[in-house]
Amino acid sequence: MSETDERGEAGGEKPWIPHEIADREGQLNPYPFFAEIREEAPLRYDPQRDTYDIVGYDAVVESITQHERFTRRNTSYINGSLLSTGEPIHSELRGMAQDYFQPGFLKERYRPKIEARVDELLDGALAGDDHIDFVEEFAKPLPILIIAELLNVPAERMDTFRKWSATLATAPEDNSPEAFAALEKKQGKAMGELQELFQAEIDRREASPMEDIIMNHIRSERESDLVDRSNVLANLSMLLIAGNVTTTQYLANAVWTFDEEDIVEDLQTGEIPLMDALEEVLRYRSPVMPGKRIATQNTEIAGVRIEEGQRIVGWLSAANRDPEVFDDPDEFRPGRTYEREPIPFGKGIHYCLGAPLANMEARVFFEKFLDRVDGWEVTADEIDPFVSSEIYGPRQLPIRVRS
Ligand code: HEM
């Protein structure tokens, strides 16, 4: 049996993103909108989207961790992957990949590769003009180079990967049915092409086995009664996509915030520890905004009755700025102490598999970048946000580097 039979593209035709934050301004600063809801209640019902928006920390955690009541199934454009299946299939699919994302394994096998890639990118970008687009020069290429290496897929397809990832993470131009249909068509095409690529990679290994994460998927599929080839293709596609635009926005959010807060020098001297600052970026400007779920039964959350089949969104970016949990949540304060952890990587069974990889990439990148430049300023008058129901951060980030 495969869960890919249960389609429900992108969770149906209604947008996941509330119209209040679907425009440029709302995407750039969704926090007042979340705060406004929170003043009244931890959640609100939006009749336009027939969706509950959950903004209080405890209710968000409940919505994303209670997977028997609130499922991630049928909420994604990639059906049948670990992110879009429930148990027991989810654990089996996660098991096919998880050894490759363990911090120890990553450190030993990938840290040197990440260092080499960062050096190459820095050598290239810093040799030229001191005005660069940080997103184009560093934040986009680095994650894609690393995830392609980890998945052992051809590096010459890098540009195509990048295009697919961006297409799959983008929101429709507006909330009209036409814009939805156009985007769904584009996303369907990108998914199809991505899966063709992985099928070709599987064929290659079936003809001539090699030891890697794709081979691990092939072996597990052969041994499994639960998952089939469609799950394997979806899983591999998800791995390629999930680590891409997310990490791009993480790096870009950090460069933007460090300049805005004027702490680049403090990071260089060690006055502010880099790891504290990066952790705070993930809370303050969480790259992934929502946790999308569908109720599997009639239930209740924060005292509100939720019917089976109801769509809900636990807004991670709202939880991470809940004043009940974080003092002065709208202040960027590296090294703050928490009673409850921020949840930029989610929580529960779908907790981000790639969190150790994203953290390692950011750490290696900033250790080197801070070492090689005197500083930087963001030169854009206004930040141009990535418009997406998932992702938060700049689409471009022009900076002037002082070196
Ligand atoms: C800063 C960068 C990243 C952020 C903020 C992030 C955030 C998240 C979040 C919030 C979830 C859970 C979604 C939910 O519960 O609905 C998730 C899941 C996931 N992420 Fe990430 N992610 C990042 C980087 C990566 C990287 C580098 C990879 C590598 C492939 C990755 C792979 C995954 C996978 C496979 C899942 C699904 C896990 C499961 O369902 O068991 N992510 N991520």
Show the helix and strand layout.
Elements (H helix, E strand, L loop, with lengths): L23 H5 L2 H10 L2 E4 L4 E4 L2 H9 L4 E2 L17 H9 L5 H7 L1 H16 L4 E3 H6 L1 H11 L6 H12 L7 H31 L5 H11 L5 H14 L2 H16 L3 H6 L4 H11 L5 E6 L3 E3 L2 E3 L4 E5 H4 L35 H18 L2 E4 L5 E2 L8 E3 L1 E5 L1
Parallel strand pairs: 2-8
Antiparallel strand pairs: 1-2, 3-5, 4-12, 5-8, 6-7, 9-12, 10-11
Helix pairs in contact: 4-11, 6-8, 6-17, 9-10, 10-12, 13-15
The structure holds protoporphyrin IX containing FE (HEM).
Q: How would you portray this structure in words?
A:
This protein has 403 residues and is α+β, with helices and mostly antiparallel strands. It has one domain: Cytochrome P450 (Cytochrome p450, Orthogonal Bundle), CATH 1.10.630.10. It contains 17 helices and twelve strands. The chain has a five-stranded mixed beta sheet with strand order 1-2-8-5-3, sandwiched between helices. Strands 4-12-9 form a three-stranded antiparallel beta sheet. α6 (111-126) runs antiparallel to α8. It is globular, with a radius of gyration of 21 Å.
Bound ligand species: protoporphyrin IX containing FE
* Total number of strands: 12
Name the quaternary structure.
single chain
Distance between the termini: 58 Å
Provide key terms for this protein:
single chain, 403 residues, alpha+beta, Cytochrome p450, 3-stranded antiparallel β-sheet, 17 helices, globular, disordered N terminus, binds protoporphyrin IX containing FE
Short recap of the structure:
By secondary structure, the chain is α+β, with helices and mostly antiparallel strands. It is built from 17 helices and 12 strands.
